[in-house]
Amino acid sequence: MDTVADTLRAAAARLADSDSPQLDAELLLAHALGKDRSHLRAYPEAVLGAAQAHRYAELVEARRRGEPIAYLTGEREFWSLLLKVTPATLVPRPETELLVEQSLAAVPVAADWEVLDLGTGSGAIALAIAKERPRCRVCAVDVSTRALAVARENAHRLHISNVRFMQGDWFSPVAGRRFRVIVSNPPYISDSDPHLGEGDLRFEPRQALASGADGLRDIRRIVTDAAAHLQPDGLLLLEHGYGQGEAVRSLLQAAGFTDIRSLRDLAGHERVSSGKHANGGIAG
Fold this sequence. Notes:
Layout: H1 4-14, H2 21-33, H3 37-42, H4 50-64, H5 69-73, E1 75-78, E2 81-84, H6 97-106, E3 114-118, H7 124-132, E4 137-142, H8 145-158, E5 163-167, E6 179-184, H9 217-226, E7 230-239, H10 245-254, E8 258-264, E9 270-277
Parallel strand pairs: 3-4, 3-6, 4-5, 6-7
Antiparallel strand pairs: 1-2, 7-9, 8-9
Helix pairs in contact: 1-2, 2-4, 6-7
C-alpha cells in the first residue's frame, strides 16, 4: 500500500500538465481523506486504505481531464469565505476579489445602503460585501435557478442574512428599484474565443462566460440600463476582460457616467472599471 508521500508524488506526476500539479494533488488527497492539507504534511508515512486510494485515483483522473478542482471538491475559498460551488456556477477567481475590494472601499463600514449584485452565481461577491457591511441590504440576481440554489445554500451555511436572492435576467427582477451601488462580474468572453474550449473553462457554464461577438454584449446592456437603477451619484463597478478596459470606459462615458476609472489586478491588467451617475431619479 502506498503512503501519503508516495501517492502525492505519483499524482503530481500525472497532473504535470496542470499549472499547479503539487497543489492539485494535495487538495484532492485532502478532500478524499476528509482532512486538511496540513494533515498530509504531518503524516507523510500514513498508508491509504483501498477505498481511499480508489476514490483519489478517480479524482486525479478527473482533474487530468481538466475538471476544475473546485467542482471536484465542491468548494472554493473566496474573500475568506468557504463557498460551495457546482457546475451550475462559475468558480470564483482571485481577481474578482479586486471587485469586492473596490466595492467595499466605496461603502462606509456603518453604511445601511442598498447594494445590487448582478449575475451572482455562487453568491461570492454579494456574500463578501454583505459580511463586511452587515447593515447594508444586498440584492443578488441571477438568471439561473440552479446557481441561485447554490448561492442561497452558501448564505445559509455562512449565516449571512442581509442578502436577498432574486431570479431573472439582469435588472428585470428589480424593476423600479434604485441602489446606491451596483456591482457585477458578468460574462465578458467573445463567443468565438478559443479559450472557451480549453482548460477549466470547458466545464463551466457557458452562459456565465460568453457574451456575444466582442464579449461586451452583457456589459453593454448593464451600462445602458444601470442609470435607471442607481440612486443619484450612485456607483457602478464592473469586472471585465484584461483587454476591455478602454472599451468599457467608453461605454460608461457614452451612458453619462462620470468619475470613470479602471483598476489593475495583481498581474497588472485592467480588470475593474467604475463610474458614477448623477441621474435625476428619486433615491429608493
